[in-house]
Amino acid sequence: MPPLAARHPEMQTLRRLLRRRSARSESARYVIEGPRLVVEAIDAGVTLDAVYVPTDAEGADLADLADRCARAGIAPREVAAGVIEQVASTQSPQPALALAVPRPATLRDALALPRTLLLVLHDVADPGNAGTLMRVAEAVGGGVVLCGPAAVDAYNPKVVRAAAGSLFRIPVAVEDDLTVVLAACRTAGVRTVATSLGGTDDYDALDLTGPVALVLGNEAHGLPAGVLAEVDRAVRIPMLGSVESLNVAMAGAVIAFEAARQRRAAPRRP
Amino acid sequence: MPPLAARHPEMQTLRRLLRRRSARSESARYVIEGPRLVVEAIDAGVTLDAVYVPTDAEGADLADLADRCARAGIAPREVAAGVIEQVASTQSPQPALALAVPRPATLRDALALPRTLLLVLHDVADPGNAGTLMRVAEAVGGGVVLCGPAAVDAYNPKVVRAAAGSLFRIPVAVEDDLTVVLAACRTAGVRTVATSLGGTDDYDALDLTGPVALVLGNEAHGLPAGVLAEVDRAVRIPMLGSVESLNVAMAGAVIAFEAARQRRAAPRRP
């Protein structure tokens, strides 16, 4: 089979999936960019419809990818030189693409993690922040829930990149309505903790060793006022100087790692 | 005086200062973008050669800026409509610019902070990371040292923006040679703690209440191997799952806020 050209329908599909959220949700597919990330997806058992590599491909990462594909029974398709550059979402793309099937978690899956530690991102709109918080969630043994009308798409290419593989390995649930998430937490016995500049407790004064959901808000507007009345606790991160707030990814990381620190220090309950 | 046009020499200078590190270091000037940030600079006592606002300016932020300029004895200069867009470093610039004089701290200033908590950024090259870590440093009562041949310029417009005013308020020292920084810490009785994937201690197992300098490395390469032998301690952040490392700004924030937490918990020593 000759290498695929840029105008081949499959290449046009990949291009569209990388650029349009509607295309991703309508076809229930997304694109993973870069040989290392495709390897991580294979290792995590993500279902891939196809893997694409350039016909002039070289290098250790691509050799590694070829090896993993062979072991997973995937025959990578060759694309003509320069095509990946036309399809990819970045200016200097890494030479591999995969067409992947999303594997969204249910809220129930996410809440069922042992010693639940959920990051609930309400209207977090920046893909770098959402991806970074997926990485943080994995590092602390937790999961992520994306909610709110302004929430970034979990399969946005910048989210996929910033998550650095964590998207493939942790439960990532999507639930538009935060109220539904909070109710599910209550039913599951998971304490809800919102972070807010107007929080009443210092984040580190709270016992975070039990099941907990950290609710983080939009980059510019924070959490809607109503949310603070609905959660079990609202916490703040004490700050010196004239710093008004931390970036949401920073704030999430600081509190999530404080929870991890407390859990390492506290003996696991039966 | 008529509003300045885009080809006016002052506008050309601002354009160059925003784009070239060499222009900034040769003239010992940098540019602050956006009315809020210019207000923060005035409030922090940063020396401004000039403030520029568009002739068609409107809005609360610009009214606030006009007010602060008046109180500070600065007469803002008017620039023609559309000029800021041509000069600025961002695609949708905020309507104000200031020509500012850097106020670098000496290493000595930075080390003389009460309960020293320094973030030493070695070859941290991404401006967003450097700016964010300045914000973290202010929030924990600390300062920043930029060092290493690949270090980003402290007055890069993206650093200025990401620092969100902290650059104007905390000591930010620049010292090319990390060895000089480590020697100065030793002399000043400041413990040096490097963060590294190969660190021997968990970061939260260390007493961080005394004077401490956290040494953070390059985004891609971390710290040179030699550094780990030269510092007092090398720490790691324990992580679950398959997460290999955190972004340097994340790692710096997690450890800096752990130090702040310990300091709030521990009584201040005399």
Write down the oligomeric state. Answer: homodimer
Biggest protein-protein contact in the assembly: A-B, 34 and 34 residues
Main pleated-sheet profile of chain A: 7 strands, parallel
> How many β-strand stretches of chain A?
11
Helix content of chain A: 40-55%
What value does the Rg of chain A take, in angstroms? 20 Å
Count the DSSP helices of chain A. 12
Strand content of chain A: 15-25%
Terminus-to-terminus distance of chain A: 58 Å
Low-pLDDT stretches of chain A: none
By helix and strand content of chain A, what is the structural category?
alpha/beta
Topology order of chain A in helix (H) and strand (E) letters = HHEHEHEHEHEHEHHEHEEEHEH
Please state the average pLDDT score of chain A.
93
Order of strands across the biggest sheet of chain A? 7-6-5-10-8-11-9
Shape of chain A: elongated
Question: Can you give a write-up of this model?
Answer:
2 copies of one chain form a homodimer. Chain A is α/β, with parallel strands linked by helices. The first copy, chain A, is built from 12 helices and 11 strands. Chain A has helices at 9-19, 21-27, 35-43, 60-72, 83-87, 107-111, 127-139, 157-163, 166-169, 178-188, 225-230, 248-265, and strands at residues 30-33, 48-54, 77-79, 97-100, 117-122, 143-147, 172-174, 191-195, 201-202, 212-216, 233-236. In chain A, the strands form 2 sheets. In chain A, strands 7-6-5-10-8-11-9 form a 7-stranded parallel β-sheet, with helices on both faces. A 4-stranded mixed β-sheet of chain A has the order 1-4-2-3, with helices on both faces. In chain A, helix 7 runs parallel beside helix 8 (157-163) and helix 7 runs parallel beside helix 12. The longest helix of chain A is centred in the C-terminal third of the chain and has 18 residues, at 248-265. Chain A starts with 8 loop residues before the first helix and ends in a 5-residue tail after the last helix. Chain A binds chain B through residues 40, 132, 135-136, 138-141, 164-166, 169-170, 202, 204, 237-244, 246-247, 249-250, 253-254, 257-258, 260-261, 264, and chain B through 40, 132, 135-136, 138-141, 164-166, 169-170, 202, 204, 237-244, 246-247, 249-250, 253-254, 257-258, 260-261, 264.
